[in-house]
Amino acid sequence: MADNLCIGVDVGGTNLRFGVFRGAECLRCVRREVDLRQRCAAASDAEAAREIVLTALGEGIHELLPDFPEVARVGLAFPGFVDHDGVLLKSPNIPQLENFALQRELGERLGLRVVAENDANAAAYGEFWEERQVHPELQDLLYVGLGTGVGGGWVHHCRPWRGAHGAAMEIGHLIVVPGGRRCGCGNQGCLEQYASARGVQASYVEATGTAPEPAVIAQMARDGHAEARAAFALAGQCLGQALAHVLKVADIGLLRVGGGLSAAWDCFAEDFLARLDQDLIPALRGSVEVKRGNNDDLAGMRGAALLANDDPRRP
Description:
The protein has about 325 residues and is α/β, with parallel strands linked by helices. It has helices at about 35-40, 45-65, 100-110, 120-135, 190-195, 195-210, 215-220, 225-250, 265-280, 300-310, and strands at about 5-10, 15-20, 25-30, 75-80, 80, 90, 100, 115-120, 140-145, 150-155, 160, 255-260, 290. The chain folds into two domains: about 5-120 and about 300-310, Nucleotidyltransferase, domain 5, CATH 3.30.420.40; about 135-290, ATPase, nucleotide binding domain (Nucleotidyltransferase, domain 5, 2-Layer Sandwich). The model has no long low-confidence stretch (mean pLDDT about 95). Its EC number is 2.7.1.2.
């Protein structure tokens, strides 16, 4: 089964990525600049928002199918709370989508078997697969993805740990600044309001009143711009604070930090690692290996494709 062709789809904050995989090997991938959050916000109602999502996903998948007609399954990495039946219970960053039978509806539209998974779980599994090529004895890995938001995934005993309701490891919604910025989940002060690309931008806006792109802020931080450096320092400190709590609960030995904002690792790593070490209990200090994730954009797609082919929970 692992050698069957499968399409892996990774839904990002402002883009969609589609890849054809034979096992873990990516044969072809395409990227579409589509902001589902923005498009769904303009939808007339929830049904229209669902149609927007299904159409955008279907168009990308159909672009690949003519050259790979033997594809039998699709693995879909989607941001939000995805239950064991592939139902998107809620997506904090796309609030129009609630109790959306994403797996079933997309499968019916495509005429293919679809496995829907939380995007961070899929990326965690993709990163786990890569680590296992070097360390085949590896059983557990904690992943945090810093993108438009912040996602988290825990591969435990070689499988993504989803929890009872598909909402496990929602690291981005740990509160790090009580009473802080309002989050799409309804709470205030969540990690993703400070340690995501949007969070870094928000910190810079608060300090300067201007809103350059996060990549521009990163370059300004490298050039010594005080407000840019402060925005990334806050991101690193909040991330270290949150992940120290996760590690104190789960005691995981390997942590990978990925996502688009990890390209600015040099801008926040020092503050992140210092706060992580400060907030860990003595028994864990120095025992957690921290790595920057693979920056090739494949982890989410690869993880989704692998899970679609070998997940025992799904048909």
